[in-house]
Each structure stands twice: as C-alpha cells, then as structure tokens.
Specification:
Rossmann fold, Tetratricopeptide repeat protein, TPR-like_helical_dom_sf, alpha/beta
C-alpha cells in the first residue's frame, strides 16, 4: 500500500507501518525536503596568549608625604584612588586574553602578603599584567629602592616596605610568557638620582611601562589617562594594541618634570581596542553559501513548485475551475428601468423674515478617501560616525604630517558644527583631536587654548563632576606646563588658573599646583633679570 496524500501519491512514500493499528500521521499535502544551508562561522576573537587564561594583579601602596598629609595612607583615612579607577575597567580591556582573573590589593600594608601575591602571579602560565602604584624611597644607605605601603615609615622601610628588586626576582622566571608591569609612581628626593640614572634599577629585568613624578599628588594621572585612552580605543587600529600605540595619547597629560620609562618588548599587544574596527568584515560579507531568496506569489496565484531533474512532478491539490458570473435576471424578462426624479430634501423650509437673508444649510457632498496620504519622501537624518575620519587624521599626525592633519581636522570640525551646532559632543570630540595634533606638532600653547575652550564648554553643559570635563582641564594644564617660552606661559597663566578655580581638584590640590607653577615661572624670570 502506498501513502496517499491530500494532493496525490508521493513516489518516495514509506511502506506500511509494522503496526497497522498505530495512528497514522495526517499529511497536509505539502511534503518535501529542505536542503540545509551551511552558514559561515563567525571569526574567533583575537586574544593575547593563544587562548590561555590571563591574570591581573593591582598593588596600591603608600602615597608618600605630600603637603600636610602624613606618611602613607594613614589607616585608610582616604579612598584607594588607583584601585577604584581600575576596578571600573573591564579586565578584558586591560588584558586582551580570552578570560581574565583580577586581584586587587587596595591599601596594601604587609610586604610578605604582597610578595606572596607577586609569587603566585609570576607562576601563572598565561598572560600577566601587574599594576603598581605608590611612592618610591631608598634605604638609609641610598642603595636600594622600596615601594612604600600604606603603613610604611621612613625609619623602618626595610621592614614594612616592598623592595623593588624583589619584583624583578619574581618575574625573571617567566621567560617568553606575555608580561607587562605598569607603574604609576612618585619618588622621594633622595630616590630621584636612582630613578633618573642612565641605567635605572626600576627597569632592570622588568618589562616595564612607568611614569615617575617628583610630586606625590600626581599619582593617578598616568593611570587615569591610560583608562581614558582604552575606553575610547584607537579608531582604525588593530584589534589588539601594544603599549607603543598608546604612548603619545597617554603621555600628553604627563608633566614635563616626570620621567617615563619603558623596557617592555615592542610590538607585543596587551590591550583590547574597544573602538569599532573600520576594516572589519560585516557578518553578511563572509564567504559561503547563501540561502536563495523566497518569492511570495501574488494574491490569487497558486505556488508552483519548480520541478527537479529525476523526480516526476506531483500535482498538489485540484486545479482551480473558472466560475461564471451568477445572474439574477429571469430569462425573457427585461430589466426594470431605473426611476429618475427630483431629489428629495429632508430639510424643513422656513419662511424668510422680511429684510433677512436666506441661509442654506445644504452642503454638497465631498468625496471622502480612506486611503492614507503618502508622505513626501524626506531623507532620514542619521548620526554621522566621525571615528573613521578621526582615525585617518590621527594616523597622519603620528606619521609627522601635522599640517595635513590640522587642515583635515579643521574641515571636519566645520562640517560637524554645520551639522550639529557649535557645542555638540561630536564637535567637542573633533576639537580635542585638533588640540592633540597641535601638541604633536610642538605647539603646546595652541593645544592648551583649545583644551581650555573644550573644558569650559563641558563645564557649562555637563558640570564639574563629569570625567570628560576634568580630563579636558588636565590636558589644558599639562600643555600649559609644556610651554617653553616663559613670557608666553605667564601670559596664559590667568586663564588656566581661572579654569582650575572651577575645577580645583580634591581639597584644591590641582589649583594650588597651578599657582605654584606660576610662582616658579615668575621667580625664574626675576632671577634672570
């Protein structure tokens, strides 16, 4: 017995079931085989360490003696600034491994506990990123450097501080495993000769990227700038970023009296590029078989299956029979003619009063259309993405084509102003790119002025607590400090100090630092006179 469907006999029907009493499946008349479509697999994300699990260790030590503050953190009286900043960053952004474990030691106090964490991190078989923050001092003989912890004291730093050479001793066994140490430090006056020596003990045997400042108040500036750059990403750059691709942007906010050290291997990526990849292929652009388009037949037409070679065509359903129109007229009887007469009015006719005009309440019927009006085709404005253009401009500037990059940035800013207005976020972003180009071209005064304008605009629109407002003010002050012409720097000082009066920093420290720099400029001028 063959399997009879609603539309005919299917030649490839299955034989009778073994159990005749079993319920039979009811066919709908549409029976066939749909070929499976093999969709392309998405490309695996690029990672550091060939799929190995990564490890991040954050050690925050003491902040030294700055101003009227006591040595160290003082029993946790102040918040752990570096740990709080780094805790807000995704571990996968800091270290672009497939999966990352992060260990934070805020306000570390016990050097033996810190050494135990360092030893465990050094034995990790995957990529390793260590972030150190704190104040550097020397022992009494001035021979070795120590990282102060929260409760360290000058007389007992050999017992309650972390010896810097212990860091190199723990990391020397890692070999070719991806390792990077980021250090955001300040140094005591006695330790400064060791830090700025030609062969610094800081970078001896350590894959290091460090910024060391003589002012403990500057601890955190380097880390904050790095976090900002990682959040923005590098438009047009690779998916994984080595530190050297971020140096120019990060170091732009570092003061001139700071020392920058980097002894890590070059062209070894560690960070994930969070910016959209310009040249990244779209998912639909991947090679592979694509499903054919399905055409829906017009209403009233039946779907006709396309015959395949080797398989006889099967008619599904009965052919449609054209039906004639039904007439209600009797044969031989003529149709009744339509009566035509005057229109009947249901309005009551009232006699018109003498001297009055007749008002007609009749309204001629107007044609009513139930079709929806077709709106005029107007272009749908979509937000313009400036990241691709900014990426080209930044690459030109970093390649040394400063004039070309400045012209492109100015043209992009003018188009952004015309499209969004003078204070839109897109305009401010392009304007900061102009300031960055001016700084790279050796024009710090111009860069400081542009950054100052951006900071004031953000101050009015977003307030003093906005991170972008504070970063723009920091960039303006850093560029002002980089001005070599003393007369020009003194001329610009009132505007920068006025900006710092609106953004004085915690306890007014940043405002006082700007005022001290102005006093130093004035004192240097008096000495020359």
């Amino acid at each position: 017995m063959a399997d009879v469907t609603a539309g005919g006999i299917w030649p490839g029907a299955m034989p009778d079931r073994a159990d005749p009493g079993a319920p039979r499946e009811v066919s709908t008349g549409w029976t066939g085989t749909i070929p499976a479509v093999q969709l392309p697999k998405p490309a695996a994300p690029q990672t550091v360490g060939d799929g190995a699990r990564g490890r991040i260790l954050v050690i925050e030590g003491g902040y030294g003696a700055g101003g009227r503050r006591h040595w160290g953190r003082g029993a946790g009286s102040q918040a752990q600034v570096l740990s709080a900043m780094l805790a807000g960053v995704s571990p996968g952004t800091l270290l672009a491994a497939e999966s990352v474990d992060a260990v934070h030691l805020p306000g570390a106090t016990d050097p033996q506990s810190v050494l135990a964490h360092l030893r465990a991190a050094a034995l990790h078989p995957g990529p390793l990123l260590i972030h150190l923050g704190g104040h550097l001092v020397t022992d009494r003989r001035g021979e070795h450097l120590y990282l102060t912890l929260r409760d360290s004291k000058p007389a007992t730093v050999r017992q309650d501080g972390l010896p810097w050479q212990a860091l190199a001793a723990e990391l020397q066994h890692r070999g070719e495993l991806p390792t990077l140490v980021i250090a955001d430090l300040s140094a005591d006056q006695a330790a400064w000769p060791l830090v700025q020596s030609a062969i610094s003990p800081l970078a001896d045997g350590i894959p290091l990227w460090a910024v060391v400042s003589p002012d403990p108040e500057q601890i955190g500036t380097f880390s904050r700038a790095l976090i900002e750059v990682l959040h923005r990403g590098r438009p047009g750059g690779p998916a994984l970023l080595p530190p050297e691709l971020l140096r120019d942007q990060v170091h732009s906010v570092v003061r001139n009296d700071s020392i920058i050290l980097h002894s890590h291997p070059t062209e070894r990526p560690f960070f994930r590029n969070t910016s959209r990849q310009i040249n990244e292929a779209l998912p639909g652009a991947a090679a592979g078989p694509r499903p054919a388009a399905v055409l829906v037949p017009p209403k009233g037409q039946a779907r006709t299956p396309k015959p395949r070679p080797g398989i006889p065509a099967v008619q599904l359903g009965k052919p449609a029979v054209a039906s004639a129109g039904v007439s209600l007229l009797k044969p031989g009887v003529p149709p009744t003619p339509r009566r035509v007469g005057p229109p009947v009015s249901l309005l009551k006719v009232l006699p018109a009063a003498p001297g009055s005009s007749v008002v007609s309440l009749d309204k001629r019927p107007t044609a009513v259309s139930f079709d929806k009006p077709i709106p005029d085709p107007t272009p749908d404005p979509r937000p313009v993405d400036y990241r691709e253009a900014i990426g080209r401009i930044v690459r030109s500037a970093e390649a040394g084509e400063h004039d070309t990059a400045a012209e492109l940035a100015l043209a992009l800013e003018e188009s952004a102003v015309a499209a969004h207005g003078p204070v839109a976020a897109e305009v401010l972003q392009v304007r900061q790119v102009r300031a960055h180009i001016a700084r790279l071209a050796g024009r710090p005064a111009q860069a400081a002025e542009v950054y100052r304008e951006v900071a004031l605009t953000l101050l009015r629109s977003r307030g003093a607590d906005d991170p972008e407002t504070q970063q723009a003010a920091t960039n303006a002050e850093a560029c002002w400090r980089a001005v070599q012409d003393r007369t020009e720097a003194i001329r610009m000082a009132p505007e920068i100090i006025e900006l710092r009066a609106h953004l004085p920093g915690p306890d007014g420290r940043k405002l006082r630092a700007a005022e001290r720099h102005l006093k130093q400029l004035a004192a240097a001028g008096s000495a020359q006179d």
